[in-house]
Amino acid sequence: MTARHSTGDALPPRRGQGELEAQILAVLGTAPGPVTAGWVQERLPGTLAYTTVITILTRLHAKGAVARARAGRSFEWVQVADEAGLAALRMRKVLDGEADREAVLTSFVTSLSPGDEQLLRGLLAQTDEEGDG
User: Are 48 and 38 within 8 A, CB to CB?
Assistant: First the structure.
């Protein structure tokens, strides 16, 4: 069932939290430096409430994906992690929340596709080489 305005027009589909986070990270990735929530809001597609932008920025800050600094009575925001970095932060949070890290990592690695496992092995080998150099 599609939600409708009182005028009978269909409402635009709701975006998921992850989609909003990705859009805000993409906008912050184009910023020339620390920017205000209003700057971010102006560059987002569609019409998103200022309070929603603040809420998503605050969630991203709690996740370590953005940093903020006081600028008068509000904040200026800067991207710390892109989408891939945000996914890595989520994975790390899950791992940190488990007592048996070896079991979690073993389960994760054994569930990878052969291509992803090969990619992971290559990345680990590259990290080892950089550490030896």
Answer: no
The overall pTM is greater than 0.70: no
* pLDDT averaged over every residue in the chain: 86
In 3D, which of 29, 23, 66, 68 has the Cα closest to residue 46?
Answer: 23
Number of H helices, E strands in the chain: 6, 2
Confidence of residue 1 (pLDDT cuts 50, 70, 90): very low
Q: For residues 26 and 76, what is the distance between their CA atoms, to the nearest angstrom? A: 16
- Nearby residues of 89 by Cβ (< 8 Å), 6 or more positions away: 63, 64, 65, 81
pLDDT score of 108 more than 80: yes
Residue pair 81/89 in contact (Cβ under 8 Å)? The answer is: yes
DSSP 20-68: HHHHHHHHHHT-SSSB-HHHHHHHSSS---HHHHHHHHHHHHHTTSEEE
Cα distance between residue 131 and residue 93, in whole Å: 25
Structure tokens that stand for 9 in this block = 């027009």
Which residue carries 């949070």 as its tokens?
93
